[in-house]
Amino acid sequence: MKNILLLSTLLLSALISTAQCDGERYRNYIFENFTLLSNVEYGSNVKYDGNPQTLMMDVYMPEGDTSTERAVVIVAHGGFFVSGSKTGSDVVPICQNLAKMGYVAVSIEYRLGFAIAASLDGPMTEAVMRGVQDGKAAIRYLRKSFAEDSNPHGIDPEQIYIAGSSAGGYIALHLAYLDEESEIPAWVNLNNPGLEGGLDGNSGNPGYPSDVNAIINIAGAIGDTTWIHPGDEPALLFHGTNDQTVPFGSDIQYAFGLLPVLEVDGSNSVDIKLSEVGVEHCFEIYEGMDHVPHATNTAILDTTISIMANFLSYQICGGTLDCSYRELTIDVNEVSNDQTFEIYPNPAQQSFKIKNLPAVNTIRLYNQIGQLAAEYVNQSAADIQQFPSGIYLVNIVTDQKSETRKLAISPRN
């Protein structure tokens, strides 16, 4: 009977996922906003120094969504395992944008810190393992909440993915590919605080699976690509060729930019190994870019989100894998092909106006990553001098229709 119930659950989950694959959800911005549930407790463990830590996550969900069975992307922040936050600029925009595409995005905190010693290869690798243990506990929490707590976050437990930036990329890679106890490096002491429980760890929610469908690594690395085998999880990789923090290929990882730790395999080496063993993957190379450029460059963030949407929607819905950039659509159900309204001037520098606009209206200006930059109510002109140059989307709403136009804000002298 248990096997029949399990099979029924899997079939129902597959049917729900298929029903959500309408060509827009998971691929474009179909929700204007998101809701944020902060500081959800998902587990606990002790840190490297033996002190206890309660583990928290922030859950981003599409605002106004009627679906209750949605794909989940867990996102782990960077900070070299000594700093960073689940509210950091390297993870929050990713979560916000994914939520507006229909995903449930989860930003997790994990245990930070490691003992400073003459040789850092052991303490650093142990910090990675604690992060992996916490990531797995977060995955198990989501499945447990689905099974035991009436699915409070509206997830599909069969569609869980993990992404990570920098140190978070280390977590994603090791969570997927360091999957045998025999692969744990000899310099790791599992008797040190917080490492009990081996690869799965004791951070909470035992009895539930901690596997994921695929991973996303942004500027992280893995201890050894020999841990990657045929049939392992698909991967999406991002890395700058001029990364001064985490090696682009195989090289020495330095702590704090000064202290050599050990040789690691960056995204370029991971790409080569994935190709050798036939694991499906995408690799976006940021030529000439330094570490995690998406955190400070809106154009790079736009590219990162676009390729993530391509990769994830393919994993969920099938079709053809597209590893290239695609311009994302905002609120596609409200875009009209009837070109009634006209923006001028376009490009603009200081302000723009809209022709044929009724007195009762709302004009919304969205930036390149789909964030609402400004809203103008009952106006036909808008002041834009406070916004940087670039491509924006202008959504014009009246009581008769809604239309969306591109606007270029040109550089100012």
What can you tell me about this protein's structure?
The structure is a single chain. The protein is α/β, with parallel strands linked by helices and 413 residues long. It has 2 domains: 2-317, Rossmann fold; 336-409, Immunoglobulin-like. The protein is 24% helix and 28% strand. It has 6 helices and 18 strands. The protein has an 8-stranded mixed beta sheet, with helices on both faces. The chain has a 4-stranded antiparallel beta sheet with strand order 15-14-17-18, with no helix packed on it. Helix 4 links the parallel strand 5 (155-165) and strand 6. Helix 3 crosses helix 4. The protein starts with a helix and ends with a strand. The model is unreliable at 1-16 and 332-339 (pLDDT under 50).
Mean pLDDT across every amino acid position: 89
Distance between the termini: 73 Å
How many domain units?
A: 2
The CATH topology of the largest domain turns out to be: Rossmann fold
| Structural class computed from helices and strand pairing | alpha/beta
Biggest sheet layout = 8 strands, mixed
Topology:
Blueprint: H1 2-20, E1 34-46, E2 52-62, E3 70-76, H2 92-100, E4 104-108, H3 121-148, E5 155-165, H4 167-177, E6 215-218, E7 221-222, E8 235-240, E9 250-255, E10 259-266, H5 267-277, E11 281-286, H6 298-317, E12 342-344, E13 351-355, E14 362-366, E15 372-377, E16 381-383, E17 390-397, E18 402-409
Parallel strand pairs: 3-4, 3-5, 5-6, 6-8, 8-11
Antiparallel strand pairs: 1-2, 2-4, 7-10, 9-10, 12-13, 13-16, 14-15, 14-17, 17-18
Helix pairs in contact: 3-4
